[in-house]
Design a protein that fits this description.
- This protein has helices spanning about 1-20, 195-200, 215-225, 245-255, 410-415, 425-430, and strands spanning about 25-30, 40-45, 60-65, 75-80, 85-90, 100-105, 130-135, 150, 160-170, 180-185, 190-195, 205-210, 240, 275-280, 290-295, 315-320, 330-335, 345-350, 365-370, 380-390, 420-425.
- By secondary structure, the protein is an alpha+beta fold.
- The protein has 2 domains: about 25-210, Immunoglobulin-like, CATH 2.60.40; about 225-430, no CATH class.
- The longest helix has 21 residues, at about 1-20.
- It comes from Banduia mediterranea.
- This is Lipoprotein.
């Protein structure tokens, strides 16, 4: 009977995933909020209710474009590298999973221009133009064309593309002070269109690309399985799990089927340059979730550096989220986390009213807010924590990307995997205040 019930739940999960990926309602962009231009839609940030979906990161800003390339035409994007930590373009399929990507160091500059993300190039260089071709086809099995992203069209013939920027330099706008790439369409007859005529020919869709967790009643069914504890799927000893793909996450989290060798294909609108870990928490085990670990070396770029520093990771962040709504509540990225002399940190997550007095930077302790509504579907004590590692260097062996199979995160990440535990306020107060932390 239990096996049959679990199989029913599996069917529900799969159905919910399909509805969430394909059946999400898409929202027209408010013209008052749209950025200048006819091609890009956005920005996607956690501050806007419309775009706080698909677990955004506070250190990043996204813009989307959805369009149809006419037969025989060639689309080219022309832009300037932003003054920022990272930039990329990612294409997505009908299920909103990534199909191809190209990021900053992989994009060659125009003649007599320079790529500030590459070693030895000054980050404040003025000549920083590039061009990027967008081909409406699957990525090749062999050699790729230079400065090209392959964007396999959806079932309706449309191409979905995201442009991302992480951590623009201080004092600059979300585009890193260089604006968004312009669109250029070379038609089959050789004529070239720019601006609004190009957008018209591309039939640009001015809707926000949104995701969904599927039907709420299905989510409630898998979350409230009668043979499970009320704290399910959280555990009294919190456990990190590497994220492989959306189906595996659902199967492992809600059915306990966590074995095998799942494909690391990403999730809804995920960034292929990131490796992700997930942790399910519940306040009934303790009002505070405390995370202690060692911070990998990352480029400290926000205040401006002459060169892009070599580092173990390009970017690191930790975020608290509502599981069902896919909204993010709070995030910290590497530069925002106080570290001690060994590059170790303490981060505590709690509701605002439970925030310990010593959970502040002056004490060397960082704080994240626990979602006030829990999972956003009637379970106020729930929380989903996401850890991101971006672009590890080849000689750094302890990134999320080093995990190979379910359950081996601690083995590979060692001290760089945050150690989670529940505490109450009086226990946390005993940690005191370390004013020497930076």
């Amino acid at each position: 009977m239990l096996v049959e019930a679990r199989l029913l739940v599996l069917v529900m999960v799969v159905g919910s995933l399909m509805l969430g990926a394909c059946g999400a309602q898409e929202t027209p962009i408010d013209p008052a909020e749209a950025i200048e231009g006819c091609f890009w839609v956005g920005p996607y940030t956690l501050e806007r209710e419309q775009t706080n979906t698909a677990f955004p990161d506070s250190g990043a800003t996204y813009w989307s474009a959805r369009f149809t390339v006419p037969d025989g035409a060639k689309l080219r994007l022309r832009g300037r590298y932003p003054h920022a930590r990272y930039m990329s373009f990612v294409s997505y399929n009908s299920l909103k999973s990534p199909t191809d990507s190209i990021y900053d160091t992989q994009i060659s500059p125009e003649t007599d221009h320079f790529n500030p993300f590459r070693p030895g190039v000054r980050r404040d260089v003025e000549s920083r133009a590039y061009g990027l071709d967008v081909l409406p086809q699957s990525p090749p099995d062999g050699a790729r064309a230079e400065n090209t992203i392959y964007a396999d069209p959806r079932f309706d013939g449309q191409v979905s593309l995201f442009y991302r920027i992480y951590v623009p330099d201080q004092g600059l706008d979300a585009t890193g002070g260089t604006g968004l790439p312009d669109v250029e369409l070379v038609q089959a007859n050789g004529s070239v269109l720019h601006g609004q005529p190009a957008c018209d020919a591309l039939q640009v869709d001015r809707h926000l690309l949104v995701s969904s967790s599927g039907r709420r009643w299905v989510y409630t069914m898998v979350r409230e399985q009668p043979w499970r504890a009320e704290t399910f799927p959280a555990q009294s000893r919190p456990e990190w799990r590497a994220f492989y793909n959306t189906f595996y996450f659902q199967r492992c989290t809600y059915l306990g089927w966590c074995g095998g060798q799942p494909e690391r294909s990403g999730g809804v609108f995920s960034n292929p340059q990131n490796g992700y870990l997930t942790l399910m928490a519940n306040r009934r085990f303790g009002p505070l979730l405390v995370l202690e670990g060692r911070m990998p070396d990352t480029p400290r770029t926000r205040s401006g550096t002459k060169l892009m520093p070599a580092a173990q990771l390009r970017y690191w962040s930790l975020c608290t989220n509502e599981t069902f709504t896919q909204k993010v509540t709070d995030c910290l990225y590497d530069e925002q986390v106080p570290l001690d002399q060994t590059d170790s940190y303490i981060i505590v997550a709690s509701r605002a009213q439970d925030r310990p007095d010593n959970a502040r930077r002056e004490c060397g302790i960082a704080w994240l807010e626990w979602p006030a509504v829990g999972d956003g579907a009637g379970h106020p004590d729930d929380m989903l924590v996401l850890l991101r590692n971006m672009l590890p260097s080849p000689d750094f062996e302890h990134a999320v990307q080093a995990t190979r199979a379910p359950g081996d995160a601690r083995e590979h990440m060692q001290a760089y995997l945050p150690e989670p535990r529940y505490m109450n306020g009086s226990e946390f107060a005993l940690l005191g205040c370390d004013a020497e932390s930076q």
